[in-house]
């Protein structure tokens, strides 16, 4: 049995691992099929503090992992199928490992960006296809960009990208947007944003250097057309990776874990959440890392309270 188990190895989980390991709690970190999280699919990261010339996403995650290992964190690869939160210690059923138990859990399984599922999309992630304007917008300075989506997030990303791009075309499969009126008004007032509504994306086109455009189906005429672009930003939402929890933790209507304000505490004592699995707003590597620190400190304090109670008894 472990004092603490961390599920997930993105910036949040690895930061929590570093803190718990330095506290001599010897945490077990369960990493899934994509160790390091979404940053392992990015190239250069320029907005993580401390790296003047930037750092490659996989390298950053590898460095954080090695830092946690240096202090005694244990890493094992597996897929968490279920967690029994009805009694302590918590019991985890992990494919590839078996059953393990822990006094505390830190959940940092992240949120997965939704993709269009069209040809050329997955092949060009990091070569012009992105799901994060804040992360990658800088690389498209003075270039033409396409944003796909019709909600507030899509319009927010389109507006943000006009800081860099020469033109941003917003593509939406319907003739009307789902975004709030104020977001639509802001976007329509932006001279750099053009509109391709009632069009369905069918393919991301690319060449040797990366994305060259996006092929669309005009829903009115049935004709296909191609919009030239160096980048395609998919902004159709995220879904948190919480299915294995079987509704044992309080979540919001979209499935994100709800934490007590100002903490990483969930509705179950001894279980903490950090990173994108509980962050519906920022979803940045640095905010994930910060919340991982919070989770580790909350977890350490909770373990101390358990040990103190045992001594008193």
From TrEMBL:
Binds 1 FAD per subunit. One of its GO terms (molecular function) is thioredoxin-disulfide reductase (NADPH) activity. Its EC number is 1.8.1.9. The keyword GTP-binding does not apply. It catalyses: [thioredoxin]-dithiol + NADP(+) = [thioredoxin]-disulfide + NADPH + H(+). Belongs to the class-II pyridine nucleotide-disulfide oxidoreductase family. Homodimer. This is Thioredoxin reductase. It comes from Paenibacillus lemnae.
